[in-house]
Amino acid sequence: MNQPAESPRARGGPRWVWGLLVLALVALAAATLLFGRQARLLSHVHGGTEPQVAGANVLADYGTVPNFALVSQTGDTVRLADLRGQIWIADFIFTHCSSSCPMMSARMAKLATLLDPSWGVRLVSITVDPDRDTPAQLADYARAYSADPAHWLFLSGDKQQIRRLVKDGFHLAVDDASPEDAAKGAESVLHSTRFVLVDGEGVLRAYYSGLEEESLKTLASDIQKVRSGKSAGRTS
C-alpha cells in the first residue's frame, strides 16, 4: 500500500527548527566567549580581588561610600548626603557599551519592578566613561529603560573622581582597555558587572551579579532585611 507523500512543508519544518537552534547555539557560544574573555581581562585590572557576590543570609560591612559630587541625567548635582537615609543599589556602566551594560541596565530595570515604591529604594547607575557620557547622553540612555529620575539616577562627572570612587570606594575594578585588550574583543572601558547594596548610612552591605536575573530576588530579599534590621554581620 502506497504511503501518502510527505509535503514539502513537513519536510522543511524540522530543518527550519534545527536551523534556528543552530543559530541560537552559535549566538550563545559567541556571547559566552565574549563575556569570558572580558572577565579574564577584568581579573587583571584590580588584582582579581573584587568582593564575592552575596550568598544566603550574607550581609556585611564592606566600608562606607566616600563623599562624592556628581551630575545626574537631569543636570542636578547629586552628593552622597542626598542619598543619606535611603537604601540604594549602585552599578557602573557606560552608554556605548554593547556587551555587559545593556544586560545590566535591563536587570536594573527588572529590579525596579520588584521593589515596592513605598520602600524608597534608589537605583544609581554611574558612568565609567564620563568624557563621552554627558548628562544629556545619560538622559537618552535612561529613557530607553523607562527610568524615572525620582527613583533611578544616572550620574556623570569628573573621570578621576569616578575612577577613585569605583576602585577605592566600592572596591571594584575599572580601567581603560589597552590596545591589546581591544584587539582581543574588549570594550573601550573594562569595568565590574557587580550590583552593590548600600544602606541608609552609606555602608556597602553586599555585592551581586548584575548579569544574572536570579540574583535580583536575592537582592530584593536582602533589601527587606536591611529595612527591617534583620541582616547578618551588622546591625542596620
Could you characterize the architecture of this molecule?
With 236 residues, the protein is α+β, with helices and mostly antiparallel strands. The chain has a single domain (7-236), classed as Glutaredoxin. Helix content is 39%, strand content 17%. The protein has helices at residues 8-42, 100-114, 135-144, 159-169, 179-183, 214-228; strands at residues 69-72, 77-79, 88-93, 122-127, 152-156, 174-176, 189-191, 194-198, 204-209. Strands 2-1-5-4-3-8-9 form a 7-stranded mixed sheet, with helices on both faces. The radius of gyration is 21 Å and the shape is globular.
Throw out a few tags for this protein.
236 residues; Glutaredoxin; 7-stranded mixed beta sheet; two-stranded antiparallel ribbon; 6 helices; 9 strands; 39% helix
Mind telling me the CATH class? Answer: Alpha Beta
The class by helix and strand makeup works out as alpha+beta
Number of beta strands: 9
Write the CATH architecture name. Answer: 3-Layer(aba) Sandwich
Chain oligomer state? single chain
Strand adjacency order, main sheet: 2-1-5-4-3-8-9
Largest sheet: 7 strands, mixed
What spatial form do the alpha-carbon principal axes imply? globular
Order of helices and strands: HEEEHEHEHEHEEEH
The proportion of strand residues reads 15-25%
* Total of helices: 6
Q: How many domains is the backbone divided into? A: 1
